[in-house]
Write a structure and sequence with these properties.
Blueprint (H helix, E strand, L loop, with lengths): L1 E10 L2 E11 L4 E6 L5 H8 L7 E6 L2 E2 L4 H7 L1 E4 L11 H8 L8 H11 L1 H4 L11 H13 L5 E5 L7 H16 L3 E5 L3 H7 L2 E6 L2 E7 H6 L1 H7 L3
Parallel strand pairs: 3-8, 3-9, 6-7, 7-8
Antiparallel strand pairs: 1-2, 1-4, 4-5, 9-10
Length: about 230
Amino acid sequence: MLKVKQLKISYGGILAVKGIDLEVQSGELVSLIGSNGAGKTSILKAIAGMIASHSGEVVFDEMLSSGKSYELLARGMSLVPEGRGIFTRMTVLENLQMGAYLRNDLFIESDLEKMYVFFPRIKERLGQLAGTLSGGEQQMVAMARALMSKPKLLLLDEPSMGLSPILVDTIFEVIEKISQDGTTILLVEQNAQRALEISDRAYVLASGQISMTGKAEDLMKDPRVSAAYLGT
């Protein structure tokens, strides 16, 4: 579904991402974990065509990426950005409808109903301005909006950031359900423990380079990962 080869990202004269390789197979839930500032968000933005890479290539669904975000969205890649990025002056329903703006099929209404199953709380707030919601509710709207585009690949950037422990539980439960429903997911997450618990595989990013990769359950048992990211 996704193959990243020797991706480098620079800001001015600083090389922030130093030639990483990663891949995500169809149907997988893969996590990219690492400390704050390691380059995780930059990688997702480059994959999604939101920033230009210094060099390297991204192959999405067996086609070389054009690097244009709107073309990637049309081909089935959807990003839930760090900070949510919802349309604050639109209602919750309008945000979800915006997620489906490229679609012209007959299943938009049924997919809206599916979002209400995934996120019961947003159904209660469909007519409310999205900017008036709590942080957790805004995260649910951002995820539901992305899913309304019917993505083949869903990119999630720090979905648990700034949320209460209870809402973190809810968000990770929903991510797991979305994966089980058949959507391929690349998850960037600072909460390494929770990310590894639900992932098939993971990559560990340190100082702009992949330092470790493997099955999520194996990485959870690795003492280097435990010491650096799991607080044990």
